[in-house]
Specification:
The complex is a heterodimer of chains A (about 270) and B (about 300). With about 270 residues, chain A is of the alpha/beta class. Chain A has helices at about 5-20, 25-40, 70-75, 120-130, 150-160, 180-185, 190-195, 210-215, 255-269; strands at about 60, 140-145, 165-175, 200-205, 230-235. In chain A, helix 1 runs antiparallel to helix 2 and helix 4 (about 120-130) packs parallel to helix 5. Chain B has helices at about 1-15, 30-35, 50-60, 80-90, 115-120, 135-145, 195-205, 225-230, 250-260, 280-290, 295-305, and strands at about 20-25, 40-45, 65-70, 95-100, 130, 150-155, 175-180, 185-190, 210-215, 215-220, 235-245, 265-270.
Chain lengths: ~270, ~300
């Protein structure tokens, strides 16, 4: 399966999952579908879905845990567990909580949901791998709004001080947070310069362009001794026209006619 | 207690390459020997306790046993959500060590008084909470938490507590009986044991026979000893340099209620719903807030006469 097909399937799963479960954050999940497809399906990350705890695997942490549906869907498509399991998402007694959970879910390294936790844990993993001489890498996917959290910058300081060049942060920079655009909430710009001033290597990329993503996520580190941040410019709600760039779809669940229209659009891609 | 902890940790680290110590930029001079001997097992995370706890979790998930080290409320309350969501929920081997329980930092002020940490930390699922009452217990507790899977909390007092010998072995979760009397059981956690011992001596002089129960482990706690204390004394007095709400006092009441044990008179000595805003040394504050030896004697006598 190529990465375009994987991303399409992930979005369709997410639409079904959030609709069936009545959960929110569909737009945040659509925003990262292409990033996940390239990481897992584009030969970027080393892993073995039959041995999820393989010691030399690259580790992936979804720090923006609210987009968990997209991660569950990706892992299922890649054989970590059957895709039928996804039908239980958000249901009573299920292992698939709205915010990503590791309990009983093969392939999920860390449960998140409270923002600002994933990068620091990833930094700790990267430090341990560095000490052990393990060549595995750590990929941490963050949201833009999450960068309001002070812990992101605590972790950023630590990572560069310890020269964790086995660490890659990817920021889903869709420029919309919970209530309003990032620019109207807490301005992050000049964003690239912030990371550069923290002594990270910075790559910027169109977060929906698979070739560009694959290029940005390979041949790392850019500079030995430096952690890398990939600022992925994305569109929140990407893939369904009426969800794109709309704050509403951070929370709304697609049902009825909206569901049918969304599914039709995704299937056309 | 701090120095004893570091000495014990050095002994553990010598034999276990998995162990790491991460400090939140505290431990001037105290950590020198450790740093010199074990540079690869030492990290200064800077003044960033939340990230320190996150990093510790990440390292623990990769197989390390990680001690985080800071003072007062910094490694606990400041990093509370990281302890809850990351370390505890993931069963990570993160051992949170706080130097300066209660009023240890005296005149430094309220920011440095750890007076709610036991209540808060013991409410977290899966977190073993230890609050040694003497130097001997610091040694034992440090060894014990290094061996205990999952997140742990070690609260160290400036007061080293009395270091008298005891026949009782240290067992995590089992309160130790330090003295057997028959009128009142003084139940204590932390270094304030030193005040309790003095109080028990004074009570003896005025004809009141007091037992002392050292509750070094706040969580988990075996109910047996506390039930025994309730059944064999007509009054129970808990003493903690901490709020009486949800700490040792709450723990003892919950344990007895859950065990269906009837008990006689009961008094919780500790901070009663106030901040320790008075300025003074640990000894001064204990007196001010009615938990020094003389206050324990006076309040126990009043309880028995009530």
């Amino acid at each position: 399966m190529n990465t375009q097909e994987l991303a399409k399937r992930v979005r369709i799963h997410v639409l079904h999952m959030t609709s069936r479960g009545g959960s929110s954050h569909i737009a945040a999940a659509f925003s990262i579908a292409d990033i996940l497809a390239v990481l897992y399906g584009g030969g970027v990350m080393r892993y073995d879905s039959r041995q999820p705890r393989w010691a030399d695997r690259d580790r992936f942490i979804l720090s923006k845990g609210h987009a968990g549906a997209a991660v569950y869907a990706t892992l299922a498509e890649l054989g970590f567990f059957p895709t039928e399991e996804l039908e239980k998402h958000y249901h009573d007694g299920s292992i698939f909580s709205g915010h990503v959970s590791h309990k009983g879910v093969p392939g999920v390294e860390l449960s998140t949901g409270s923002l600002g936790h994933g990068l620091g844990v990833g930094v700790g993993m990267a430090k341990a791998l560095q000490l052990a001489g393990n060549p595995a890498r750590i990929f941490v996917l963050l949201s833009d709004g999450e960068c309001d959290e002070g812990t992101i910058w605590e972790a950023a300081l630590f990572a560069q001080h310890h020269q964790l060049d086995n660490l890659v942060a990817i920021i889903d920079y869709n420029k919309i947070q919970s209530l309003a655009p990032v620019a109207e909430t807490l301005q992050l710009e000049p964003f690239r310069a912030k990371w550069e001033s923290f002594n990270w290597s910075v790559r910027e990329v169109n977060g929906h362009d698979h070739e560009a993503l694959a290029a940005a996520l390979t041949n790392l580190p850019e500079k030995p001794g430096k952690p890398t941040v990939v600022i992925a410019h994305t569109t929140k709600g990407k893939g369904v026209s009426f969800m794109e760039n709309a704050v509403l779809w951070h929370y709304r669940t697609a049902r009825g006619e909206e569901f049918d229209r969304a599914l039709a659009e995704l299937e056309r891609t | 207690m701090r120095d004893r902890f570091i000495q014990t940790l050095c002994q553990i680290v010598e034999k276990d390459p998995r162990v790491m110590l991460i400090t939140g930029d505290l431990g001037f001079a105290v950590l020198d020997e450790y740093r010199r001997r074990f540079p690869r097992q030492f990290i200064n995370a800077g003044v960033a306790e939340q990230n320190m706890t996150l990093v510790a979790t990440g390292m623990a998930l990769e197989g390390h046993v990680v001690f985080t080290y800071s003072i007062g409320n910094f490694p606990t309350l400041r990093a509370l959500e990281m302890i809850r969501n990351d370390a505890a929920y993931h069963g990570a081997n993160v051992k949170v060590v706080s130097v300066g329980g209660g009023f240890s930092y005296g005149a430094l002020g309220i920011s440095h008084h750890a007076t709610e940490d036991l209540a808060i930390m013991r409410s977290l699922p899966g977190v073993t909470c230890v609050s040694p009452t003497s130097l001997g217990e610091v040694t034992e507790a440090t060894k014990a938490i290094a061996q205990t899977p999952g997140a742990c909390f070690l609260r160290l007092d400036k007061d080293k507590g009395p270091d008298g010998p005891t026949d009782e072995p240290f067992v995590l979760g089992r309160p130790r009986v330090l003295r057997r009397g028959h009128d009142v059981a003084l139940i204590v956690t932390g270094g304030i044991l030193s005040e309790v011992v003095k109080a028990a001596d004074e009570l003896e002089r005025v004809g009141i026979s007091a037992s002392i129960y050292a509750v070094h482990t706040i969580k988990p706690v075996e109910p047996g000893r506390l039930v025994e204390a309730a059944r064999t004394h007509r009054a129970l007095v808990t003493v903690e340099e901490h709020t009486i709400h949800g700490g040792l006092g709450g723990l003892v009441l919950e344990t007895l209620a859950d065990a269906g044990t009837c008990f006689g008179k009961f008094l919780r000595i500790g901070l009663d719903g106030c901040f320790s805003s008075v300025v003074g040394s640990q000894a001064y504050l204990r007196t001010t807030y009615d938990m020094d030896a003389a206050s324990i004697v006076r309040r126990t006598q009043k309880l028995l006469l009530s």
